[in-house]
Amino acid sequence: MAQTLNEIRELHSRISDRILSKPNVTATGVGFKRTAGKKTGELCIVCSVENKIGKRNLAERDKIPAAIDGIPTDVQPTGTIYALGRPTGRFRPAPGGVSAGHVSVTAGTLGCLVKRGGSIHILSNNHVLANSNMAGTGDIILQPATLDGGTVDNDQIARLTGFVPVIFEQETGRSLLANTITGIFNFIARISGSGTRLEARKVNTRKNLADCAIAEPLNEVEVTGEILGLGTITGIASGELDMEVKKSGRTTGLTTGIIEQTDATVRVNFGTGKTALFTDQLIAGPMSRGGDSGSVVLTSHDEIVGLLFAGSTNTSIINRIQNVFSLLDITLP
Q1: CB burial class (10 A; 0-12, 13-18, 19+) of residue 50?
Q2: DSSP-derived pairing of the beta strands 235-236 and 303-311
């Protein structure tokens, strides 16, 4: 028999202390039950836990019953719940979701920790850690980033170790044939009094899969695998249509969204006349702003699906994490 909202609230007020006394439980409240990660219309008592543990691994007294007094429960993992600091501040140890960037970059977001060759690294975007191809191995990474007050003297956290170069659509380049053709045209234009001139340019049609880079911490104790406000990554998942996702970023903090498109090819403007085509991208709604670049995107079960790197007023563009991991030859720690 369906219970009214007031009846569920009354029951919750009586049993919440008892539920919170169980190990691993971080919160209880009244909400909607989720099935396979999707919200249903069924009201229940939601029990938030740091990590979901199989019933066989719990003592009987520590288990949360499927229903209490006929009212269903739902166990939802949230990770450890922290009092949140400003993502633009200085954090030690530094979690994912906070301000970070190459010493010559204004600001971006530290994504998460990954592993390559047995060593822990910080993951973010090329344009955050490698200054859009302009950086070199060993360059300084700051936390917080320069725009947020980070300085070389006080806030070095890592050194750049690798990045996937962004292939831009247009590069200035001249061949003998191009020089000849443009030279003839410009000569004719000049003697005819026209102000029009041509410039030979090489158009690059190659596409990118990811805007990504890694940096090795100067000291591993100064970083943590937690994501600010989200907890620990539980695994890897494939981004799919209508999937509910979330992120923690330097500018907008904790936001949620829905994957509205997959397999997308997107033209991204990097400023100063540079654009690049990215293929096999995920597109979500407006869950980011400038400075959130480098945020990792998670499912409702805290699985990583992507690396946020671009957006507009109503979209967020996300690299598939499988492409990021493959290109950088990295794994979760």
Answers
A1: middle
A2: parallel
* Burial class for 105, CB neighbours closer than 10 Å (0-12, 13-18, 19+): buried
CB atoms within 10 A of CB 301: 15
The DSSP bridge pattern shows strands 140-142 and 99-102 to be antiparallel
Cα–Cα dist 218/238, whole Å = 32
In a domain, 82, yes or no: no
| pLDDT confidence bin for 197, thresholds 50/70/90 | very low
Instruction: Look at the block and give the residue holding tokens 């293929």.
Output: 279
Residue whose entry in the numeric block shows the structure tokens 């493959």: 326
Q: Which among 59, 87, 161, 127 is positioned nearest to 294, based on CA atoms? A: 127
3-state secondary structure at position 187: helix
Mean pLDDT of 36-44: 82
User: Rounded distance, CA 127 to CA 90, Å?
Assistant: 21
Domain membership of residue 189 as a residue range: 170-203
Cα 323 to Cα 304: distance, rounded to the nearest angstrom: 12
> In this structure, is residue 278 part of a structural domain?
yes
Helix (H) or strand (E) holding 280: strand 274-284
CA-CA distance, 43 to 289, in Å (whole number)?
34
Instruction: Give yes or no for residue 200 having a pLDDT over 70.
Output: no
Tell me if residue 93 falls in helix, strand or coil: coil
Same domain for 123 and 218?
Answer: yes
Rounded to two decimals, the pTM is 0.72
Q: What share of the chain is helix, strand, coil (3-state, %, to 5)?
A: 15, 40, 40
Q: Which of 182, 203, 224 is the last residue of a domain?
A: 203
Cα separation, 19 vs 67, whole angstroms: 12
DSSP category for residue 3: P
Q: What is the pLDDT of residues 211-257, one digit of tens each?
A: 999 999 999 999 999 999 999 999 999 999 999 999 999 999 999 99
**What band does 114 get if pLDDT is binned at 50, 70 and 90?**
very high
